[in-house]
Write a structure and sequence with these properties.
4 helices; about 60% helix
Length: about 80
């Protein structure tokens, strides 16, 4: 398994600290999928914006339907996210 060095919340500063605070407000914690992008805060910001656009933006699918699709895809890919 690969090892990726990440930046913990208590060591984050600048844009990364902002993104971590946003993650905390959204989910109550900073999940590993967020931490994995900690070395590139700009990429993290854009990645999060894409995710939020897909999951909460305008769509013919309800939020519940989108969440269900995400769960099914994660299960098929054997990914616990």
């Amino acid at each position: 398994m690969a090892f990726i060095r990440t930046i913990d919340e208590d060591r984050a500063s600048g844009d990364l600290a902002v993104e971590y605070r946003r993650a905390l407000r959204r989910a109550g914690k900073v999940f590993n999928v967020i931490r994995l992008q900690s070395r590139r805060p700009g990429v993290l910001k854009r990645s999060t914006a894409l995710y939020l656009g897909i999951m909460t933006g305008e769509s013919a699918l309800s939020r519940a339907e989108r969440e269900l699709l995400a769960v099914v895809v994660s299960d098929v890919n054997a990914c616990h996210y």
